[in-house]
Amino acid sequence: MPNKKSTELQLLRLVSQTPLQINVDFIRTTKHEHKNSKIDYLESFYQTFDDIKARNYDLLIVTGAPVEKFAFEEVDYWRELQEILNWAEHHVTSSLFICWGAQAALYHYYNIQKTTYSEKLFGIYSQHNLRENWLLNGFDDVFMTPQSRYTGIEINRDHKDINILAANNDIGATILSSKDDRFIFILGHFEYDTTTLMSEYLRDLATGILTSFPKNYIDSNSTNKNPANTWRAHAHILFQNWINHVYQVTPYQLSDIEKLL
Fold it and tell me: How many CB atoms lie within 10 A of CB 114?
């Protein structure tokens, strides 16, 4: 997540809307030079994997990163991320992976390849709710989610290890889960604020990246030229469904998480 503070706040807003007490640890990779965050900030608010790897957790969120055009093995912290993903199988009840984090996890766990687009997938896209699953309880049949990525995945809808929960006919699968529901893969950004896509658009222009204006972001037929948030309610439903489900299935003693395997 290049803008750590904004992403932290976005995710904290979503996980905090529950009567359950949530304690959060932020962790960072050590094999990467963080260009957008000062080291004193990281050292003050983030732990390393070595700091937490002896612990067990109910939930893990792995965020995206602007490294989609690189092969996974070319990312400087890839081996460290693989170590975290292997650890999560035995120390975390359920993991949720966002955007590039989802693509990386699908590749690591299932060798599912990513595909590169000719231009950035950027804007608000509709998705169809494809199957009954506790994660999407309360979702409409069609719902919206921001997308901001240069890559997607190629996956057979009958994959033996993966359930495709939501998809768009043009951009493919957008929400997936492992058959045992312990891994959730989100190829989109439910966590985005109303103005996040605009901020990314202006950032790209400022750095010389010719990104098209985000699709379906502003209603051209409306006199109001400000973007409307059409995904906020589903974002809250998804995270609450996830947290409530994990709360019910996590052993009282977190050390017993491996018994879920």
Answer: 20
Q: Which of 189, 234, 236, 245 is catalytic?
A: 189
In the chain, the percentage of residues whose pLDDT exceeds 90 is: 73
Kindly state the helix (H) or strand (E) to which residue 182 belongs, with its residue range.
none
Q: Are 147 and 171 in contact (CB under 8 A)?
A: yes
91 is an active site residue: no
Of 68, 91, 191, 200, the active-site residue reads 191
Q: Which of 91, 99, 200, 234 is catalytic?
A: 99
Task: Kindly list the distances between the CA atom of residue 98 and the CA atoms of 77, 105, 183, in Å, as whole numbers in the listed order.
Answer: 17, 9, 11
Active site residue 189: yes
Which DSSP string corresponds to 235-256? HHHHHHHHHHHHHHHS-SSGGG
Phi, psi dihedrals of residue 165, rounded to the nearest 5°:
-90, -30
**In whole angstroms, how large is the CA radius of gyration of the chain?**
18
Largest CA distance in the chain: 57
| Rounded-to-integer distance, Cα 14 and Cα 24, Å | 12
Q: Which residues pair with 164 in a beta bridge?
A: 176
pTM of the predicted model, to two decimals? 0.93
Condensed to tens digits (0 to 9), the pLDDT of residues 153-187 reads: 989 888 899 999 999 999 999 999 999 999 999 99
Q: Annotated catalytic, 90?
A: no
- For residue 173, the cross-strand partners are 167
96: amino acid identity, one letter? L
Task: Quickly tell me which residue has 């995270």 as its tokens.
Answer: 239
- DSSP class of residue 217 equals S
